[in-house]
Design brief:
CATH topology of one domain: SH3 type barrels
Low-confidence stretches: none
Radius of gyration: 24 Å
Shape: flat
Number of strands: 5
Mean pLDDT: 85
Helix content: 55-70%
Oligomer: single chain
Number of helices: 5
Length: 196
């Protein structure tokens, strides 16, 4: 009987370690699909309902339409006329007061994701928010302030690294983490559960 219970516990634990990550992955993918499909899908559903005079829904049509729009925008952006048009639109959006801050911030965030691993030169530890507590941060720039070399460190919040704090530290206050940038990003996104 004890062998049966040990067998059941062992297989259950192993199964749990396989099923939980798979379930979380499916849940996140389902959420992302619903979110992406919902952006244009609701408008397309209303459009089809108006034409057919009956309620119509095509799952995935909003996502497919979004992909086509992104492709056509890329096609437009790679020709001479499209480049000029996008440059004009970029300048226009960069002049509108409220839109300017949102648009330029989203462009900078997009640039960070586009550049990938190379966007941060190194991952470091800094004592923050108080002495004795070390936070993982990413060096984003170096600057001279009042004749002293300062390091700008972006300290992300967990588990969403797109929000955080950009802080100035003296060079001697920045400690090497011993992690690559990719390992540090995994650490932050996992809430500290993935430690290399």
């Amino acid at each position: 009987m004890e062998k049966v219970l040990d067998h059941l516990k062992g297989k259950f634990a192993t199964g749990r370690f396989v099923v939980i990550p798979l379930g979380i992955t499916i849940f996140i993918l389902k959420f992302l699909f619903s979110f992406a499909d919902g952006i244009l899908g609701t408008y397309l559903d209303e459009l089809f309902t108006a034409f057919s005079h009956r309620e119509t829904h095509f799952p995935g049509l909003g996502m497919l339409t979004g992909a086509v729009i992104i492709y056509l925008t890329g096609l437009l952006a790679t020709n001479v006329f499209g480049t000029q048009f996008l440059k004009w639109g970029d300048e226009l959006l960069s002049r509108i007061p409220l839109v300017k801050s949102i648009y330029t911030s989203s462009k900078q965030l997009n640039k960070v994701f586009k550049e990938g691993k190379t966007s941060y030169p190194r991952a470091v530890f800094v004592e923050w928010p108080r002495k004795g507590v070390r936070a993982v941060g990413f060096v984003t720039a170096e600057a001279i302030r009042d004749g002293e070399k300062m390091v700008v460190v972006y300290v992300p919040t967990m588990p969403n690294p797109t929000s955080g704090f950009a802080l100035f530290f003296r060079e001697d206050e920045v400690l090497e983490s011993g992690m690559t940038v990719e390992e540090a990003v995994k650490f932050v996104v996992s809430g500290g559960m993935v430690v290399s």
